[in-house]
Design brief:
Elements: E1 2-7, E2 11-15, H1 35-44, E3 53-57, E4 62-65, E5 69-77, E6 80-82, E7 85-86, E8 93-95, E9 100-103, E10 108-116, E11 150-152, E12 178-184, H2 193-201, E13 204-210, E14 214-218, E15 229-234, E16 239-241, E17 249-251, E18 258-261, E19 263-267, H3 272-275, E20 283-288, H4 291-313
Parallel strand pairs: 12-20
Antiparallel strand pairs: 1-4, 1-11, 2-3, 3-10, 4-9, 5-8, 5-10, 6-7, 6-9, 12-19, 13-14, 13-20, 14-17, 15-18, 16-17, 16-19
Helix pairs in contact: 1-4
């Protein structure tokens, strides 16, 4: 009862919601880049939201099913097909033994997430099945997937309650320019008033220096009071570092646990679903919001997930 990787695509790895509680020991959180999309995929196939999924970047994998199961694909549209026939994203899809899932071309976004009913047979390491590729821990042998890898199912299913209701609308919409909401700080006092105004009023372009650890932006230089160097402290997902050169870097899922560059702001959790789907050449601007507004946005997202589960499990 398993899947076989026929072609791993550009970068496919096993991820869940992350390895929480170990940053103090120097262990990165890792986990999915787009927690909301991964959670929706799991809800659609009847899993807990934190179940491990396959995260597929840009060019997705080719996967043969050696046993039947039910899957759901969310996030970016990478052109998923089953035995050559286009299939819908954001829908629970039964798959038979011998069928092949392929991702044929990038249509929208950057990353897709594949959930499998009953979960993947991946060991739990420090409370998580996520792959930390730099440390070579977790996931499938601590690395991205390769040709001929075989991953078992823990408890595959051939039917689910209300299977026909297990769908929702895709969420990522391509735009000429994307808005990322931020909360200023914790080192916004390391920047001049002009520097903060530049940050909030400029449009930045994502550069090709973009991976699961972070992405560099190109655009107007952000002015510091003195320099961008600080005594190293903790780094959160979405932290916007600005080194002395003046160009921002957004830290992502595989970020290091601490860093020594001043952080002008942090992208709010509710907008990770946008941040994770951006790619080189995309343009962004930042909008300042309050901590209360950031919390309300996250609570609203969680409420929609609860509503989705209630609607399909009734």
């Amino acid at each position: 009862m398993s899947i076989t990787i026929l072609n791993p695509g550009m970068l496919t790895s096993v991820q869940d919601l992350g390895r929480i509680g170990y940053q103090q020991f120097g262990v990165s959180v890792s986990g999915v880049m787009d927690p909301r999309s991964a959670s929706i995929a799991n809800i659609l196939v009847g899993n807990d939201e934190g179940e491990a999924v396959l995260e597929c970047t840009m060019m997705g994998p080719h996967i043969r099913f050696d046993a039947p199961n039910i899957i759901a694909i969310t996030g970016g549209d990478l052109g998923a097909t089953l035995d050559g026939q286009r299939i819908d994203t954001y829908r629970a899809i039964p798959v038979n033994a011998g069928q092949t899932l392929r991702f044929t071309m990038l249509r929208t976004g950057c990353r897709a997430f594949v959930a499998f009913a009953g979960g993947l047979d991946i060991p739990v390491v420090m409370g998580s099945r996520s792959t930390n590729m730099k440390a070579k821990i977790g996931g499938y042998q601590g690395r991205k997937l390769q040709k001929d890898d075989v991953i078992g199912f823990r408890a595959p299913k051939t039917d689910l309650k209300n299977l026909g209701l297990r769908h929702t609308s895709p969420e990522f919409m391509p735009r000429a320019e994307y808005k990322l909401r931020i909360v200023l700080g914790p080192q916004d006092d390391a920047f001049t008033e002009r520097g903060i105004t530049t940050f909030l009023s400029s449009v930045y372009t994502l550069t090709p220096e973009f991976d699961r650890m972070g992405c560099r932006l190109d655009g107007e230089l952000i002015e510091h009071v003195k320099s961008g160097d600080i005594i190293s402290d903790g780094i959160a997902f979405g932290a916007v570092q600005v080194p002395s050169a003046g160009k921002p870097i957004i830290m992502l899922a595989d970020r290091q646990t601490t860093g020594g560059y001043a952080k002008i702001a942090n992208v709010i959790s509710a907008d990770f679903r946008i941040l994770a789907q951006l790619k080189a050449g995309d343009k962004v601007h930042f909008e300042k919001v309050s901590i209360a507004a950031a919390q309300e946005a996250l609570l609203a997202q969680r409420a929609t997930l609860n509503c989705l589960r209630s609607a399909i499990d009734r």
